[in-house]
Design brief:
Elements lengths: L8 H10 L1 E4 L5 H13 L8 E5 L4 E8 L6 H6 L2 H11 L3 E11 L7 E4 L2 H6 L7 E7 L10 E4 L22 H10 L2 E4 L6 E5 L4 E3 L8 E10 L50 H4 L9
Antiparallel strand pairs: 1-9, 2-3, 3-4, 4-11, 5-10, 6-9, 6-11, 7-8, 7-10
The structure holds 2-oxoglutaric acid.
């Protein structure tokens, strides 16, 4: 299923140069409305929105994680042609859905996320190549006040940087190396309006700030992997290549889905046995060999 909204040549160049590219208006208000309405009516999202501790300052944010994708709004967004084809174009090969999350920073809560690369964790899962990215869609405004993402522009060109542990987190960068990065790469605050999208490379160093706004900052962050790059470790069944029926670009607008959070299995991040626990909680320091 080909998308009617392919990335432009300039957007593809920007992604490879900067490690990310913003796609204004990637989804429109009508497409987002069912999810926003459901979240307003059930803020716990079926009890699966879990508070996660992260970062050296032990700040908190709320995650909804999913690894598989159904025929509901959430699964259809994950399989949407413009998202999946954009990921495949930027990665340079067919892709599959790796895992995804909605990250909410409640109004007035810190929720700060320290500087990190996503591929640090995906390497730990056994993916040999950094041929992986995330497509982020803003569900509510992401501004400097509400805790938008910051990108270190061009930092993906460093390749993978080791994660180190401190008292509360394992996703930190050596502080001397980190201050060198902050001098060398431009720190760009990626401010977004609802529906704006960002594709960002697994190795681009990013963080996000506090939410001191009076509304919840909510981002949907869907990650894709090249089909040739499935993890080589044998405890990664949940990250194996999964068949994915691409959803036509007009599926969300036309209501071609069954419920909002209905058939896509939502991870239970309070259960260490859940397949999503090691992805989204990652509270043990891994053997990085
Ligand atoms: O949503 C955010 O504020 C940042 C999330 C993030 O960087 C991550 O989960 O890797």
């Amino acid at each position: 299923m080909a998308t009617e909204h392919p990335l432009t040549p300039d957007q593809i160049v920007a992604y490879h140069r900067d490690g990310y590219v913003v796609v204004p208006g990637m989804m429109d208000a009508d497409e987002l409305a069912p999810a926003l309405q459901e979240i307003a009516e059930d803020p716990s999202i079926r009890g699966r929105l879990a508070t996660i501790h992260d970062g050296s300052e032990k700040t908190q944010h709320d995650y909804l994680g999913w690894v598989r994708h159904g025929d509901d709004w959430l699964g259809t967004a994950t399989r949407l042609a413009r998202v999946v084809e954009g990921a495949a174009t930027l990665i340079g090969e067919p892709v599959y859905h790796f895992h995804s999350k909605i990250v909410q920073k409640p109004a007035g809560r810190s929720g700060r996320v320290v500087w990190h690369q996503d591929y640090g964790g995906w390497y730990q899962d056994g993916c040999l190549m950094p041929h992986m990215l995330t497509c982020l869609i803003a569900l509510t405004p992401a501004t400097q006040t509400s805790g938008c993402l910051h990108m270190l522009k061009g930092s993906h060109k460093m390749g993978r940087v080791d994660r180190i542990r401190d008292g509360d987190a394992y996703s930190n960068i050596n502080p001397v190396r980190e201050s060198g990065m902050l001098e060398r790469f431009e720190d760009v605050a990626v401010e977004l309006q609802p529906g704006d999208g960002v594709f960002f490379h697994g190795n681009v160093v990013h963080s996000s700030g506090d939410n001191s706004a009076d509304y919840n900052r909510i981002l949907m962050e869907m990650s894709y992997n090249g089909v040739s790059n499935a993890p080589v470790f044998d405890n990664q069944e949940h990250h194996a290549v999964k068949p994915m029926a691409i959803a036509a670009d007009n599926s969300l607008r036309n209501g071609d889905f069954e419920g909002v959070f209905a058939s896509t299995p939502l991870c239970d991040l309070n259960d260490p046995q859940d397949e999503g626990y090691t992805i989204f909680v990652r509270d043990s320091f891994p053997d990085l060999s």
